[in-house]
Amino acid sequence: MDVTPSAHAAALWVGLHLILLLLLSVLVVRQRRAHGVVLGDNDIPELTRAVRAFGNATEYVPGGLIAIAVLALAGAPPMVVHITGLILLVGRVAHAIGLSRSGGSSVLRSAGVTLTWLAYIMGGVALIFYVIP
User: Fold this and answer.
1) pTM surpassing 0.85?
2) What ranges do the domains of the chain cover?
3) CATH class of 5-131
């Protein structure tokens, strides 16, 4: 079976997002070990932020990856897959960094949410566009 260029593009972004999720998970484990916390966050701000950065990514990344994979299956050009994947990744990284630094509002958190939603909008509109005959 031949793999299309769009499938290669999707594989790249799925792989990068999986690595991001793993890194965020490792940051939670490091905070848990540093503070001796097995369950919950014991109201430790650094741990709470690490848990939420990982949790928020796990809330948004799967939907984005589904859009990326289905775009490839629907025959979207690789560039559409790449742009969607890049916007989602930059958004998720920005959000995670912003949240890890502060539990309050920040430019990086806001940019991360905005870029994530933009990737969702782009993916959704592109999916609809590529299935209309």
Assistant:
1) yes
2) 5-131
3) mainly alpha
